[in-house]
Inverse folding.
């Protein structure tokens, strides 16, 4: 088989490389090895030492790091990143280009694909090389009800990959690789000014290992305190179904589902959530699902490992009491 | 692509995708595509927000709100709904040759239609569609038109003659972005406009009646000057579904508890075995 390469776009909005980009390097390594090719990374750097970022991506499996240096204030300009990615693709002629399906990646990758006139597959769960040596992309479609395997006839094959589906490689700082400081200047595109950060994200559900999710079974906004307490004891986060955001009770950042966040915690506890397909689309990859619902026929049951038919308030309160007792017992010993 | 410079009476184009109700529609697993004949088409829920925002911006910027869709002929009803919700004009790009388009071909076709419409100030799209579910069409249209865009827009902070300032979700935080016209915004929900939370309006009966008499302009590929037939429909689509299957087939097999005490004990056991109790 002819040697073919993989190019990974490494996200750097604010001076910290996004760890979801490292996850792509795991996959990139696998595909590049199947093609006996190289793994390239491309990133923008606004630091004094562009080699620092390059070392990071090399330690995580890149053979070559291509670094574009920009002024600090231009770093969050996604159109500039699109320029850099386009030029890196032209330079390295990869068979496959991977971009994280973060909001940032999903904004930038389509521009690059359209500029090159190539196909782009959104929010993939996997990419593999089939028996005929062709790249296949796996993605949920139709609000997650369908899993589709997709091939792209244009080159390079481009895909955005859902954060969290691959584990990031362990860094090996003894790995050597080549660093290319790209010399062509990137011109800031016209008509766009990224003024700056206006609000931090207050919660990051995608990174939580325990999620206590509440739905319309919650009778009053204040009642969430009980579930917050449970989440706190478990070191987790409170999440909600969409109606609780629509009613203005919670920030969209806490919404799980098709139009909210995609989460994959180690344990997902759902209280008073019926299990609509749009909600399931956001949590189906959770490792273990426990749900509590007064309705034994709630569709949520089909998506649960433990399904408790009962009152969410009663179960949550009992859990809190028991866990508190457990904790104080543990701390005494 | 050269564009007419943003004329002072620039229009606002809204990309409206007629989509099936995903709870009702069938998916043709054999052919790997949605059986669009199986359900009635309605405006993609996200696009309703784009439409609502367009009518607000019209109050300030003037111009006309033009809804543009690429869809089969029976999508006409969805475009009437767009008129009932405030669009001044509705264009349905409908032609067998457009069929089977992926996001590249769709965005190219929409961009060519927008060029034909001329002097616009803004193009608005939804964050994503419930069926395609890619969120790619908006930014791809912007690229074909060679204009700046902002995605995942949650707030429109300010707007004047020449520019619009929005808050866009970058993932690691929300950033303030200023775009000079002409530009494209891909809007999310919740969506606020100058501090006010926007919800799609429910059309008044009089608007519904008016929309029934409205003319929906149907354009075929021949009505779009300069369109490259190799770049539309299935021919212009580099991505192909090679196989597809239902994801929901494999549900979990729950252990069901009805006794609260037993349930709580079991949950604690699970949490402990997974080392989640420190
Ligand atoms: C385009 C689109 C996108 C969407 N995106 C999302 C999304 O991202 N996320 C999302 O969540 N939804 C989404 N939805 C909405 C989704 O279809 C459902 O409407 C929603 O998930 C229902 O939320 P729920 O389960 O909390 O409420 P309900 O469906 O009303 O269910 C409440 C449940 O609580 C149970 N209950 C009530 N009281 C108690 C009690 N005391 N103890 C125990 N159980 C109790 C009831 O039996 C019921 O099963 C979307 C819809 C559309 C059309
Ligand atoms: N066929 C279409 N006709 C009009 N607008 C579309 C079409 N497909 C996508 N769009 C627009 O692009 C957005 C994103 O769609 P998608 O990329 O399919 O997720 C939608 O919310 C619409 O605003």
């Amino acid at each position: 088989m002819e040697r073919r390469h993989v190019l990974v776009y490494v996200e750097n909005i604010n001076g910290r490389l996004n760890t979801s980009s490292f996850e792509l390097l795991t996959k990139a390594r696998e595909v590049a090895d199947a093609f006996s090719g190289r793994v390239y990374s491309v990133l923008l750097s606004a630091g004094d030492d562009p080699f620092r970022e390059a070392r990071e991506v090399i330690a995580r499996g890149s053979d070559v790091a291509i670094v574009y240096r920009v002024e600090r204030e231009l770093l969050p300009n996604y159109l500039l990143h699109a320029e850099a990615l386009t030029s890196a693709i032209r330079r390295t002629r990869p068979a496959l280009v991977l971009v994280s399906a973060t909001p940032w990646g999903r904004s930038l990758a389509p521009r690059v694909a359209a500029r090159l006139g190539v196909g782009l597959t959104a929010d993939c769960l996997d990419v593999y090389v089939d028996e005929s040596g062709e790249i296949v992309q796996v993605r949920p479609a139709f609000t997650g009800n369908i899993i589709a395997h997709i091939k792209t006839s244009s080159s390079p094959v481009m895909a955005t990959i859902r954060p969290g589906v691959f584990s990031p490689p362990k860094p090996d700082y003894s790995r050597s690789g080549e660093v290319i400081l790209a010399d062509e200047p990137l011109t800031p595109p016209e008509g766009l000014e990224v003024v700056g950060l206006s609000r931090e994200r207050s919660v990051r559900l995608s990174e939580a290992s325990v999620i206590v999710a509440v739905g319309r079974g919650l009778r009053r906004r204040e009642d969430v305190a009980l579930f917050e307490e449970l989440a706190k004891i478990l070191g987790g986060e409170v999440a909600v179904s969409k109606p609780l955001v629509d009613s203005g009770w919670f920030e969209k950042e806490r919404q799980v589902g098709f139009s909210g966040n995609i989460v994959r915690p180690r344990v997902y506890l759902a209280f008073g959530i019926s299990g609509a397909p749009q909600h399931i689309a956001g949590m189906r990859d959770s490792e273990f699902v426990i749900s509590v619902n007064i309705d034994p026929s709630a569709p949520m049951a089909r998506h649960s490992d433990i399904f408790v038919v009962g009152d969410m308030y009663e179960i949550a309160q009992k859990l809190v009491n028991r866990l508190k007792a457990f904790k104080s017992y543990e701390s005494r010993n | 692509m050269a564009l007419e410079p943003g004329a002072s009476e620039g229009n606002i184009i809204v990309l409206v995708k007629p989509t099936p109700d995903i709870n009702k529609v069938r998916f043709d697993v054999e052919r790997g595509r949605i059986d669009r004949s199986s359900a009635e088409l309605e405006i993609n829920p996200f696009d309703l927000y784009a439409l609502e925002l367009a009518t607000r911006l019209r109050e300030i910027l003037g111009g006309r709100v033009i809804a543009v869709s690429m869809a089969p002929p029976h999508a006409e009803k969805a475009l009437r709904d767009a008129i009932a919700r405030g669009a001044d004009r509705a264009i349905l790009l409908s032609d067998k040759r457009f069929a089977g388009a992926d996001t590249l071909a769709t965005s190219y076709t929409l961009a060519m239609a927008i060029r034909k419409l001329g002097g616009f100030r803004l193009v608005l799209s939804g964050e994503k569609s419930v069926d395609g579910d890619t969120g790619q069409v908006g930014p791809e249209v912007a690229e074909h038109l060679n204009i700046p865009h902002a995605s995942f827009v949650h707030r429109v902070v300010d707007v004047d003659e020449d520019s619009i300032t929005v808050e866009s979700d970058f993932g690691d935080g929300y950033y303030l972005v200023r775009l000079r016209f002409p530009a494209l915004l891909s809007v999310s929900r919740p969506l606020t406009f100058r501090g006010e939370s926007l919800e799609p309006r429910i059309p008044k009966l009089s608007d519904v009646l008016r929309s029934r008499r409205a003319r929906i302009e149907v354009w075929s590929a021949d009505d779009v000057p300069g369109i490259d037939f190799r770049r539309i429909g299935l021919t212009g689509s580099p991505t192909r579904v090679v196989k597809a299957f239902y994801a929901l087939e494999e549900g979990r097999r729950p252990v069901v508890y009805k006794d609260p005490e037993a349930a709580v004990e079991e949950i604690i056991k699970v949490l402990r075995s997974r080392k989640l109790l420190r």
Summary: Residues B 15-17, 44, 46-47, 69-71, 103, 106, 110, 125-126, 128-129, 132-138 surround adenosine monophosphate (ligand 2) (CB under 6 Å). The mean pLDDT of chain A is 93. Chain A has eight helices and 16 strands. The longest strand of chain A covers residues 192-200.
